[in-house]
Amino acid sequence: MQGSSRAAAAASRDAFTGALAAGADRSRLAGELLAVVAVLDGNATLRRAVADASREGADKAALAERLFGGKVSAEALAVLKGVFGQRWSSERDLSDTIESYAVESVIASAEEGDRADTVEDQLFRFERIVAADAGLRAALTDESVPADKRSALVDSLLTGKVADETLLLVRQAVTAPRGRRFDHTIGHFLDIASTRRDQQTATVTSAVPLSDEERDRLAAGLSSIYGGKVHVNTVVDPRVLGGVKVEIGDELIDGTVIRKLDGARRAMGA
Asked: Record's PROSITE patterns (predicted)?
């Protein structure tokens, strides 16, 4: 985001946090905001109107009232007025911000049920499954297939097997990618979750699955190193042979056997 959009996002956030503090139904708020994003994405004239930097903020907030008053909850309307009333650098920045508030509402709903860690784990694992299966990836991401059929496929795969919040976010990523690849969309949703929960995320690759105790111990160790909560996602890859590889932010800590063997081979060839 450019400067004015960053300022707009910061200013509009008060309306969003106020809606959550007022006791908004998180799931309903998420659904309403995502529906508005779909409306904006499908109507270029409306997008231009709400993002028009030459219009007064009060005028654009009033537009939100005219368009959505009585059609969404009072909390959702307050968020939309807060977003529409700001000065945005681009139309996309405005709609992206509404989408981010919707995703954060889903994570807030999971937090209420103490499921936020579970939702993050499930999103990460499903994205890895899709990445490893070209046929499944094609079936989920082929936009020539009607969105309702792709949604039905998601439901058939995940209903009853994951948290409701996970299902909602995967369904959203599949049916409304908004020009992004599936893995990028899920990664974006996970970044929103990490920001909301004030944590960093580490991806740990090992030759065999880590036990819950090992994972907790690793998370605690990383938290002490990086000075804050660290959520650990795990990947099993027999090719590493042993040890673990940890990716966190832009850093890579590679303690795998294959890395050490590669180093030995290079040394012998030097």
From this structure: ATPASE_DELTA
User: pLDDT of 208-246, one tens digit each?
Assistant: 888 989 888 888 888 888 888 888 988 888 887 778 888
Helix/strand/coil for 262: helix
pTM for this entry: 0.85
